[in-house]
Amino acid sequence: MEKPYYVRNHNIFTSGNMLSYPAGGSTNIYMEDEDGRAYYNFEIIDKIYDNYVEHGFIPIIELDFMPLDLVPDSKDLPSDWAMGRDVGHESYEQNKWKLPPKDYKKWQQLIEIFANHLYERYGEQVQNWYFEVWNEPNLTNYWLGSVEDYCKLYDYSAEAIKRVNKSFKIGGPATSDIGTEFLKQFLDHVTSGKNYVTDEIGTAIDFISFHTKGAYYVPRRSYGHKVNHQSPSLAKILNDIRSNLIVCNEFEQLNNLPIFIDECDPAVGTIYGVYDNPNYNICNTEYYPCIVASMIYHILSLSSRIQMITHWSFYMEGKRLFEGNRTLMTNYNLHLPILSGLKLFGKLKYKRLLIETNQIHLPIFGIATCDDENKSYQLLLFYHVDDWTHEDIQSISITFKNIPLENVLLKHYRIDSNHNNPYVEWVRMGKPDELNPNQLEHLKHSQELKLLYAPVKYKIENNQLKLASFDLPSHSISLIELTNISI
Protein backbone atom coordinates (compact mmCIF):
# COMPACT_ATOMS: atom_id res chain seq x y z
CA MET A 1 0.00 0.00 0.00
CA GLU A 2 2.94 2.26 -0.77
CA LYS A 3 4.03 2.24 2.85
CA PRO A 4 7.31 0.79 4.14
CA TYR A 5 7.25 -2.69 5.59
CA TYR A 6 7.72 -3.27 9.30
CA VAL A 7 10.36 -5.89 10.10
CA ARG A 8 10.59 -7.84 13.36
CA ASN A 9 13.42 -10.25 14.17
CA HIS A 10 14.42 -12.50 17.06
CA ASN A 11 17.89 -12.85 18.62
CA ILE A 12 19.16 -9.27 18.56
CA PHE A 13 21.02 -9.83 21.85
CA THR A 14 21.80 -13.54 21.50
CA SER A 15 25.39 -14.72 22.01
CA GLY A 16 27.07 -17.02 19.52
CA ASN A 17 29.45 -17.09 16.57
CA MET A 18 27.73 -14.11 14.90
CA LEU A 19 26.51 -16.32 12.06
CA SER A 20 23.00 -17.42 11.21
CA TYR A 21 21.43 -20.83 11.53
CA PRO A 22 17.85 -21.94 10.78
CA ALA A 23 15.40 -19.78 12.72
CA GLY A 24 18.08 -18.13 14.83
CA GLY A 25 21.23 -16.07 14.92
CA SER A 26 23.57 -14.14 17.19
CA THR A 27 25.16 -10.71 17.44
CA ASN A 28 27.41 -10.90 20.53
CA ILE A 29 26.41 -7.34 21.38
CA TYR A 30 27.09 -7.83 25.10
CA MET A 31 30.11 -9.33 26.85
CA GLU A 32 31.88 -8.91 30.18
CA ASP A 33 35.57 -8.97 30.96
CA GLU A 34 37.15 -10.99 33.78
CA ASP A 35 36.21 -8.32 36.31
CA GLY A 36 32.56 -8.29 35.23
CA ARG A 37 32.77 -4.99 33.36
CA ALA A 38 30.49 -4.84 30.32
CA TYR A 39 31.66 -4.03 26.82
CA TYR A 40 29.67 -3.88 23.61
CA ASN A 41 30.05 -5.05 20.01
CA PHE A 42 27.82 -3.36 17.42
CA GLU A 43 29.37 -4.97 14.31
CA ILE A 44 26.42 -7.23 13.47
CA ILE A 45 23.81 -4.89 14.96
CA ASP A 46 24.89 -2.12 12.59
CA LYS A 47 24.79 -4.39 9.55
CA ILE A 48 21.23 -5.43 10.40
CA TYR A 49 19.76 -1.99 10.92
CA ASP A 50 21.81 -0.34 8.16
CA ASN A 51 20.17 -2.84 5.81
CA TYR A 52 16.70 -2.09 7.15
CA VAL A 53 17.16 1.67 6.88
CA GLU A 54 18.68 1.43 3.39
CA HIS A 55 15.57 -0.38 2.13
CA GLY A 56 13.06 1.81 3.95
CA PHE A 57 11.96 -0.80 6.50
CA ILE A 58 10.70 0.21 9.94
CA PRO A 59 12.03 -2.06 12.72
CA ILE A 60 10.00 -3.65 15.46
CA ILE A 61 12.89 -4.46 17.76
CA GLU A 62 12.50 -7.41 20.09
CA LEU A 63 14.65 -6.83 23.15
CA ASP A 64 15.84 -10.43 23.36
CA PHE A 65 17.33 -12.94 24.03
CA MET A 66 19.54 -13.06 27.14
CA PRO A 67 23.26 -12.64 26.35
CA LEU A 68 25.51 -15.37 27.75
CA ASP A 69 27.32 -13.04 30.12
CA LEU A 70 24.04 -11.84 31.65
CA VAL A 71 22.83 -15.38 32.40
CA PRO A 72 22.88 -16.24 36.14
CA ASP A 73 26.10 -18.03 37.10
CA SER A 74 24.39 -21.01 38.69
CA LYS A 75 20.99 -22.10 37.58
CA ASP A 76 19.42 -25.53 37.53
CA LEU A 77 17.97 -26.16 34.11
CA PRO A 78 15.87 -28.97 32.72
CA SER A 79 18.21 -31.18 30.69
CA ASP A 80 18.26 -34.72 29.38
CA TRP A 81 21.81 -34.67 28.11
CA ALA A 82 25.30 -34.65 29.61
CA MET A 83 27.71 -31.77 28.95
CA GLY A 84 30.27 -32.78 26.37
CA ARG A 85 28.35 -35.82 25.16
CA ASP A 86 25.65 -34.28 22.96
CA VAL A 87 27.67 -32.88 20.08
CA GLY A 88 26.43 -29.54 18.81
CA HIS A 89 24.19 -28.58 21.74
CA GLU A 90 25.62 -26.36 24.45
CA SER A 91 23.82 -25.42 27.65
CA TYR A 92 23.46 -21.80 26.55
CA GLU A 93 21.92 -22.63 23.17
CA GLN A 94 19.56 -25.16 24.69
CA ASN A 95 18.07 -23.18 27.55
CA LYS A 96 20.11 -20.43 29.17
CA TRP A 97 19.17 -17.73 26.65
CA LYS A 98 15.62 -18.03 28.00
CA LEU A 99 16.54 -16.93 31.53
CA PRO A 100 15.98 -13.62 33.32
CA PRO A 101 19.19 -11.59 33.77
CA LYS A 102 21.55 -12.13 36.68
CA ASP A 103 21.55 -8.34 37.17
CA TYR A 104 18.58 -6.24 36.07
CA LYS A 105 20.57 -3.01 36.27
CA LYS A 106 23.10 -4.42 33.81
CA TRP A 107 20.20 -5.39 31.56
CA GLN A 108 18.87 -1.84 31.84
CA GLN A 109 22.31 -0.49 30.93
CA LEU A 110 22.41 -2.79 27.88
CA ILE A 111 19.03 -1.53 26.68
CA GLU A 112 19.97 2.11 27.27
CA ILE A 113 23.32 1.85 25.47
CA PHE A 114 21.71 -0.10 22.61
CA ALA A 115 18.88 2.43 22.17
CA ASN A 116 21.27 5.37 22.42
CA HIS A 117 23.52 3.78 19.78
CA LEU A 118 20.55 3.47 17.42
CA TYR A 119 19.55 7.08 18.10
CA GLU A 120 23.03 8.38 17.41
CA ARG A 121 23.37 6.32 14.23
CA TYR A 122 19.90 6.73 12.69
CA GLY A 123 18.60 9.93 14.23
CA GLU A 124 15.01 11.05 14.68
CA GLN A 125 13.55 8.22 12.56
CA VAL A 126 14.04 5.89 15.54
CA GLN A 127 11.03 7.63 17.09
CA ASN A 128 8.94 5.78 14.49
CA TRP A 129 10.42 2.41 15.43
CA TYR A 130 9.00 0.09 18.09
CA PHE A 131 10.76 -1.65 20.98
CA GLU A 132 9.12 -4.87 22.18
CA VAL A 133 10.20 -6.68 25.33
CA TRP A 134 10.96 -10.34 24.60
CA ASN A 135 8.97 -12.87 22.59
CA GLU A 136 6.20 -15.19 23.84
CA PRO A 137 7.25 -15.10 27.50
CA ASN A 138 4.23 -17.22 28.44
CA LEU A 139 5.96 -20.23 26.85
CA THR A 140 8.96 -22.13 28.23
CA ASN A 141 10.08 -22.33 24.61
CA TYR A 142 11.27 -18.72 25.08
CA TRP A 143 11.14 -17.74 28.76
CA LEU A 144 12.08 -19.69 31.88
CA GLY A 145 11.17 -16.96 34.32
CA SER A 146 7.85 -16.18 35.99
CA VAL A 147 5.26 -13.58 35.02
CA GLU A 148 6.71 -11.39 37.77
CA ASP A 149 10.21 -11.83 36.33
CA TYR A 150 8.93 -10.69 32.96
CA CYS A 151 7.19 -7.65 34.42
CA LYS A 152 10.44 -6.73 36.15
CA LEU A 153 12.33 -7.14 32.88
CA TYR A 154 9.74 -4.93 31.17
CA ASP A 155 10.02 -2.19 33.81
CA TYR A 156 13.80 -2.01 33.52
CA SER A 157 13.56 -2.05 29.72
CA ALA A 158 10.95 0.71 29.60
CA GLU A 159 12.96 2.87 32.00
CA ALA A 160 16.03 2.53 29.79
CA ILE A 161 14.20 3.28 26.55
CA LYS A 162 12.45 6.35 27.91
CA ARG A 163 15.71 7.69 29.35
CA VAL A 164 17.16 7.83 25.85
CA ASN A 165 14.08 9.49 24.36
CA LYS A 166 10.65 9.79 25.93
CA SER A 167 9.03 9.56 22.47
CA PHE A 168 10.53 6.13 21.79
CA LYS A 169 7.77 3.51 21.71
CA ILE A 170 7.90 0.41 23.88
CA GLY A 171 5.37 -2.35 24.45
CA GLY A 172 4.62 -6.04 24.73
CA PRO A 173 4.20 -8.70 25.90
CA ALA A 174 4.16 -10.55 22.54
CA THR A 175 2.39 -13.50 24.12
CA SER A 176 1.41 -16.57 22.13
CA ASP A 177 -2.16 -17.48 21.20
CA ILE A 178 -2.69 -19.26 24.53
CA GLY A 179 -1.22 -16.43 26.59
CA THR A 180 -4.38 -14.59 27.61
CA GLU A 181 -3.82 -15.07 31.35
CA PHE A 182 -0.22 -13.90 31.05
CA LEU A 183 -1.41 -10.91 29.02
CA LYS A 184 -3.94 -10.01 31.69
CA GLN A 185 -1.37 -10.19 34.49
CA PHE A 186 1.04 -8.05 32.49
CA LEU A 187 -1.57 -5.38 31.75
CA ASP A 188 -2.56 -5.42 35.43
CA HIS A 189 1.06 -4.69 36.27
CA VAL A 190 1.62 -1.82 33.82
CA THR A 191 -1.64 -0.14 34.86
CA SER A 192 -1.83 -0.72 38.63
CA GLY A 193 1.24 -2.65 39.73
CA LYS A 194 4.28 -1.34 41.58
CA ASN A 195 7.07 -0.45 39.18
CA TYR A 196 10.22 -2.46 39.96
CA VAL A 197 12.48 0.48 39.07
CA THR A 198 10.68 3.60 40.31
CA ASP A 199 8.50 2.10 43.11
CA GLU A 200 5.64 4.10 41.60
CA ILE A 201 2.39 2.68 40.24
CA GLY A 202 2.37 1.70 36.59
CA THR A 203 4.83 1.50 33.71
CA ALA A 204 5.06 3.22 30.35
CA ILE A 205 3.48 1.28 27.50
CA ASP A 206 2.86 2.46 23.93
CA PHE A 207 1.39 -0.65 22.28
CA ILE A 208 0.07 -4.10 23.16
CA SER A 209 1.14 -7.19 21.22
CA PHE A 210 0.16 -10.84 20.99
CA HIS A 211 0.35 -13.71 18.47
CA THR A 212 -1.82 -16.30 16.76
CA LYS A 213 -1.23 -19.44 14.70
CA GLY A 214 -3.69 -21.39 12.59
CA ALA A 215 -2.30 -24.88 13.08
CA TYR A 216 0.01 -26.98 15.22
CA TYR A 217 0.77 -29.96 13.01
CA VAL A 218 1.10 -33.22 14.92
CA PRO A 219 3.69 -34.54 14.60
CA ARG A 220 5.88 -31.74 13.35
CA ARG A 221 8.44 -34.34 12.33
CA SER A 222 7.13 -37.75 11.30
CA TYR A 223 10.44 -39.65 10.93
CA GLY A 224 9.05 -41.33 7.83
CA HIS A 225 5.74 -42.46 9.32
CA LYS A 226 2.47 -41.72 7.57
CA VAL A 227 0.96 -38.38 8.59
CA ASN A 228 -2.74 -37.55 8.59
CA HIS A 229 -3.95 -34.68 6.45
CA GLN A 230 -4.17 -31.45 8.47
CA SER A 231 -5.00 -27.87 7.51
CA PRO A 232 -4.80 -24.46 9.17
CA SER A 233 -7.96 -23.08 10.73
CA LEU A 234 -8.99 -19.51 9.99
CA ALA A 235 -11.60 -19.81 12.76
CA LYS A 236 -8.87 -20.62 15.30
CA ILE A 237 -6.86 -17.57 14.24
CA LEU A 238 -9.87 -15.27 14.62
CA ASN A 239 -10.93 -16.84 17.94
CA ASP A 240 -7.39 -16.36 19.30
CA ILE A 241 -7.55 -12.70 18.37
CA ARG A 242 -11.01 -12.22 19.87
CA SER A 243 -9.91 -13.83 23.15
CA ASN A 244 -6.92 -11.53 23.44
CA LEU A 245 -8.98 -8.48 22.46
CA ILE A 246 -11.39 -9.24 25.30
CA VAL A 247 -8.47 -9.09 27.73
CA CYS A 248 -7.14 -5.85 26.23
CA ASN A 249 -10.57 -4.21 26.36
CA GLU A 250 -10.82 -4.89 30.11
CA PHE A 251 -8.27 -2.12 30.66
CA GLU A 252 -10.14 1.04 29.71
CA GLN A 253 -7.17 3.26 30.53
CA LEU A 254 -5.29 1.52 27.69
CA ASN A 255 -8.04 1.83 25.07
CA ASN A 256 -6.04 4.45 23.20
CA LEU A 257 -3.14 2.05 22.60
CA PRO A 258 -2.71 0.30 19.25
CA ILE A 259 -2.64 -3.48 19.14
CA PHE A 260 -0.10 -5.43 17.10
CA ILE A 261 -0.59 -9.06 16.12
CA ASP A 262 3.06 -9.35 15.30
CA GLU A 263 3.07 -13.03 14.58
CA CYS A 264 0.01 -13.94 12.54
CA ASP A 265 0.64 -17.17 10.67
CA PRO A 266 -1.28 -20.12 9.22
CA ALA A 267 0.92 -22.70 10.97
CA VAL A 268 3.67 -23.16 13.54
CA GLY A 269 6.90 -24.80 12.50
CA THR A 270 9.59 -22.44 11.34
CA ILE A 271 12.35 -24.95 10.65
CA TYR A 272 10.07 -27.80 9.54
CA GLY A 273 9.11 -28.63 5.98
CA VAL A 274 7.57 -31.18 3.66
CA TYR A 275 10.21 -33.81 4.48
CA ASP A 276 9.15 -33.62 8.12
CA ASN A 277 5.41 -33.39 7.58
CA PRO A 278 3.82 -33.17 4.10
CA ASN A 279 1.18 -30.72 5.39
CA TYR A 280 3.85 -28.01 5.30
CA ASN A 281 3.48 -28.05 1.53
CA ILE A 282 0.99 -25.19 1.96
CA CYS A 283 4.03 -22.89 2.22
CA ASN A 284 4.94 -23.70 -1.39
CA THR A 285 1.55 -23.23 -3.00
CA GLU A 286 -1.13 -20.71 -3.87
CA TYR A 287 -2.93 -21.75 -0.67
CA TYR A 288 -0.56 -19.67 1.45
CA PRO A 289 -1.20 -16.20 -0.03
CA CYS A 290 -4.91 -16.98 -0.15
CA ILE A 291 -5.25 -17.78 3.56
CA VAL A 292 -3.12 -14.72 4.39
CA ALA A 293 -5.51 -12.60 2.31
CA SER A 294 -8.45 -14.09 4.17
CA MET A 295 -6.77 -13.45 7.54
CA ILE A 296 -6.20 -9.82 6.66
CA TYR A 297 -9.76 -9.36 5.40
CA HIS A 298 -11.35 -10.74 8.56
CA ILE A 299 -8.93 -9.03 10.95
CA LEU A 300 -9.83 -5.66 9.42
CA SER A 301 -13.39 -6.14 10.69
CA LEU A 302 -12.48 -7.19 14.26
CA SER A 303 -11.22 -3.98 15.84
CA SER A 304 -9.93 -0.58 14.78
CA ARG A 305 -7.30 -0.92 17.50
CA ILE A 306 -5.48 -3.58 15.48
CA GLN A 307 -3.09 -1.37 13.58
CA MET A 308 -0.50 -3.89 12.47
CA ILE A 309 -0.03 -7.56 11.76
CA THR A 310 3.26 -9.15 10.79
CA HIS A 311 3.68 -12.37 8.90
CA TRP A 312 6.68 -14.52 9.82
CA SER A 313 9.17 -15.44 7.13
CA PHE A 314 12.69 -16.79 7.48
CA TYR A 315 15.80 -17.15 5.38
CA MET A 316 16.90 -20.79 5.49
CA GLU A 317 20.35 -22.04 4.56
CA GLY A 318 21.21 -25.52 3.35
CA LYS A 319 17.69 -26.48 2.34
CA ARG A 320 16.35 -28.19 -0.75
CA LEU A 321 14.19 -26.63 -3.44
CA PHE A 322 10.64 -25.98 -2.24
CA GLU A 323 11.36 -27.54 1.14
CA GLY A 324 8.14 -26.08 2.52
CA ASN A 325 9.63 -23.83 5.20
CA ARG A 326 7.93 -20.58 6.13
CA THR A 327 9.88 -18.38 3.74
CA LEU A 328 9.32 -15.91 0.92
CA MET A 329 11.83 -17.65 -1.33
CA THR A 330 13.35 -21.06 -1.93
CA ASN A 331 16.79 -21.94 -3.33
CA TYR A 332 18.15 -19.92 -6.27
CA ASN A 333 16.21 -16.98 -4.77
CA LEU A 334 13.06 -18.26 -6.47
CA HIS A 335 9.93 -16.52 -5.21
CA LEU A 336 7.16 -18.49 -3.56
CA PRO A 337 3.51 -17.60 -4.30
CA ILE A 338 3.21 -15.82 -0.93
CA LEU A 339 5.61 -13.15 -2.18
CA SER A 340 3.43 -12.53 -5.23
CA GLY A 341 0.42 -12.33 -2.91
CA LEU A 342 2.10 -9.65 -0.81
CA LYS A 343 2.87 -7.73 -3.99
CA LEU A 344 -0.83 -7.78 -4.88
CA PHE A 345 -1.71 -6.42 -1.44
CA GLY A 346 0.89 -3.72 -2.06
CA LYS A 347 -1.19 -2.49 -5.00
CA LEU A 348 -4.16 -1.66 -2.77
CA LYS A 349 -4.67 1.97 -1.77
CA TYR A 350 -5.72 3.66 1.46
CA LYS A 351 -9.37 4.47 0.85
CA ARG A 352 -11.53 1.38 1.29
CA LEU A 353 -14.79 1.01 -0.63
CA LEU A 354 -18.01 -0.89 0.00
CA ILE A 355 -18.52 -4.29 -1.64
CA GLU A 356 -21.96 -5.85 -2.07
CA THR A 357 -22.05 -9.59 -2.74
CA ASN A 358 -24.61 -12.32 -3.31
CA GLN A 359 -22.07 -15.10 -2.66
CA ILE A 360 -23.67 -15.71 0.72
CA HIS A 361 -22.73 -19.35 1.18
CA LEU A 362 -19.26 -19.30 -0.37
CA PRO A 363 -16.00 -18.21 1.30
CA ILE A 364 -15.29 -15.72 -1.46
CA PHE A 365 -14.42 -12.26 -0.19
CA GLY A 366 -12.95 -9.06 -1.51
CA ILE A 367 -11.26 -5.82 -0.54
CA ALA A 368 -11.93 -2.76 -2.71
CA THR A 369 -9.91 0.44 -2.59
CA CYS A 370 -9.42 3.60 -4.61
CA ASP A 371 -6.94 6.40 -5.14
CA ASP A 372 -8.93 9.60 -5.73
CA GLU A 373 -5.88 11.61 -6.69
CA ASN A 374 -4.72 9.24 -9.42
CA LYS A 375 -8.26 8.10 -10.30
CA SER A 376 -7.74 4.39 -9.91
CA TYR A 377 -9.70 1.52 -8.38
CA GLN A 378 -8.54 -1.84 -7.05
CA LEU A 379 -10.46 -5.01 -6.22
CA LEU A 380 -8.77 -7.94 -4.51
CA LEU A 381 -10.81 -11.17 -4.58
CA PHE A 382 -9.92 -14.48 -2.96
CA TYR A 383 -11.55 -17.86 -2.48
CA HIS A 384 -10.22 -19.42 0.71
CA VAL A 385 -11.15 -22.85 2.07
CA ASP A 386 -9.24 -24.17 5.10
CA ASP A 387 -8.85 -27.63 3.60
CA TRP A 388 -5.83 -27.23 1.34
CA THR A 389 -6.83 -30.30 -0.69
CA HIS A 390 -10.22 -28.78 -1.59
CA GLU A 391 -10.76 -28.22 -5.33
CA ASP A 392 -13.54 -26.07 -6.73
CA ILE A 393 -14.19 -23.35 -9.31
CA GLN A 394 -16.80 -20.62 -9.03
CA SER A 395 -18.03 -18.24 -11.70
CA ILE A 396 -17.71 -14.59 -10.64
CA SER A 397 -19.61 -11.58 -11.99
CA ILE A 398 -18.52 -8.07 -11.07
CA THR A 399 -20.12 -4.68 -11.54
CA PHE A 400 -18.23 -1.51 -10.62
CA LYS A 401 -20.61 1.26 -9.59
CA ASN A 402 -20.24 4.99 -9.00
CA ILE A 403 -17.15 5.25 -11.21
CA PRO A 404 -16.87 8.97 -12.16
CA LEU A 405 -14.63 8.30 -15.16
CA GLU A 406 -15.16 8.03 -18.90
CA ASN A 407 -12.58 5.46 -19.96
CA VAL A 408 -10.50 3.00 -17.98
CA LEU A 409 -7.79 0.44 -18.54
CA LEU A 410 -8.42 -2.88 -16.76
CA LYS A 411 -5.59 -5.13 -15.58
CA HIS A 412 -6.31 -8.53 -14.02
CA TYR A 413 -3.64 -10.34 -11.99
CA ARG A 414 -4.10 -13.91 -10.75
CA ILE A 415 -2.35 -16.31 -8.38
CA ASP A 416 -3.57 -19.90 -8.64
CA SER A 417 -2.28 -23.34 -9.57
CA ASN A 418 -1.53 -22.17 -13.10
CA HIS A 419 -0.52 -18.52 -12.73
CA ASN A 420 2.36 -16.81 -10.91
CA ASN A 421 3.30 -20.12 -9.32
CA PRO A 422 6.91 -21.36 -9.67
CA TYR A 423 6.17 -24.35 -7.43
CA VAL A 424 3.70 -25.84 -9.91
CA GLU A 425 6.18 -25.32 -12.73
CA TRP A 426 8.87 -27.08 -10.70
CA VAL A 427 6.54 -30.05 -10.10
CA ARG A 428 5.89 -30.22 -13.85
CA MET A 429 9.64 -30.42 -14.37
CA GLY A 430 9.74 -33.56 -12.22
CA LYS A 431 10.91 -31.88 -8.99
CA PRO A 432 14.61 -31.69 -9.87
CA ASP A 433 16.96 -31.20 -6.90
CA GLU A 434 19.19 -28.92 -8.98
CA LEU A 435 18.30 -26.69 -11.90
CA ASN A 436 20.07 -26.32 -15.21
CA PRO A 437 20.22 -22.80 -16.73
CA ASN A 438 17.12 -23.34 -18.88
CA GLN A 439 15.06 -24.62 -15.96
CA LEU A 440 16.18 -21.74 -13.75
CA GLU A 441 15.31 -19.20 -16.43
CA HIS A 442 11.86 -20.76 -16.86
CA LEU A 443 11.14 -20.68 -13.11
CA LYS A 444 12.35 -17.10 -12.76
CA HIS A 445 10.03 -16.14 -15.59
CA SER A 446 7.13 -17.92 -13.88
CA GLN A 447 7.68 -15.97 -10.64
CA GLU A 448 7.24 -12.58 -12.30
CA LEU A 449 3.88 -11.05 -11.44
CA LYS A 450 1.99 -11.32 -14.73
CA LEU A 451 -1.49 -10.46 -15.93
CA LEU A 452 -4.16 -13.11 -16.42
CA TYR A 453 -4.75 -11.63 -19.87
CA ALA A 454 -3.75 -8.52 -21.80
CA PRO A 455 -5.01 -5.14 -20.49
CA VAL A 456 -8.46 -4.17 -21.77
CA LYS A 457 -9.88 -0.69 -22.42
CA TYR A 458 -13.47 -0.01 -21.35
CA LYS A 459 -15.86 2.89 -21.71
CA ILE A 460 -17.77 3.70 -18.51
CA GLU A 461 -21.50 4.09 -19.06
CA ASN A 462 -23.81 5.61 -16.43
CA ASN A 463 -20.88 5.49 -13.98
CA GLN A 464 -20.90 1.67 -14.14
CA LEU A 465 -18.76 -1.09 -15.59
CA LYS A 466 -20.05 -4.66 -15.76
CA LEU A 467 -17.43 -7.28 -16.49
CA ALA A 468 -17.90 -10.59 -18.22
CA SER A 469 -18.04 -13.55 -15.84
CA PHE A 470 -14.77 -15.29 -15.03
CA ASP A 471 -13.74 -18.38 -13.08
CA LEU A 472 -12.17 -18.15 -9.63
CA PRO A 473 -10.66 -21.44 -8.37
CA SER A 474 -10.44 -22.25 -4.67
CA HIS A 475 -7.18 -21.10 -3.04
CA SER A 476 -6.74 -18.36 -5.63
CA ILE A 477 -6.43 -14.57 -5.61
CA SER A 478 -7.42 -12.08 -8.30
CA LEU A 479 -6.52 -8.41 -8.33
CA ILE A 480 -8.41 -6.18 -10.77
CA GLU A 481 -7.14 -2.66 -11.37
CA LEU A 482 -9.02 0.14 -13.14
CA THR A 483 -6.99 3.20 -14.11
CA ASN A 484 -8.19 6.35 -15.78
CA ILE A 485 -7.16 6.79 -19.44
CA SER A 486 -7.99 9.24 -22.21
CA ILE A 487 -8.99 7.99 -25.66
Automatic annotation (TrEMBL):
- Ranges where the Glycosyl hydrolases family 39 N-terminal catalytic domain occurs: 28-448
Q: Which SUPFAM superfamilies match?
A: (Trans)glycosidases (SSF51445), Glycosyl hydrolase domain (SSF51011)
Kindly list any coiled-coil regions of this protein: none
Superkingdom of the source species: Eukaryota
Q: Which family does it belong to?
A: Belongs to the glycosyl hydrolase 39 family.
Q: Which InterPro entries match?
A: GH, GH39_as, GH39_cat, Glyco_hydro_39, Glycosyl_Hydrolase_39
Lineage, broadest ranks: Eukaryota, Metazoa, Spiralia, Gnathifera, Rotifera
Name listed for the protein in its UniProt record: Glycosyl hydrolases family 39 N-terminal catalytic domain-containing protein
Recite the UniProt keywords alphabetically. Glycosidase, Hydrolase
Tell me the active site: 136
Q: Which GO terms describe its molecular function?
A: hydrolase activity, hydrolyzing O-glycosyl compounds
Q: Which Gene3D superfamilies match?
A: Glycosidases, Glycosyl hydrolase domain, family 39
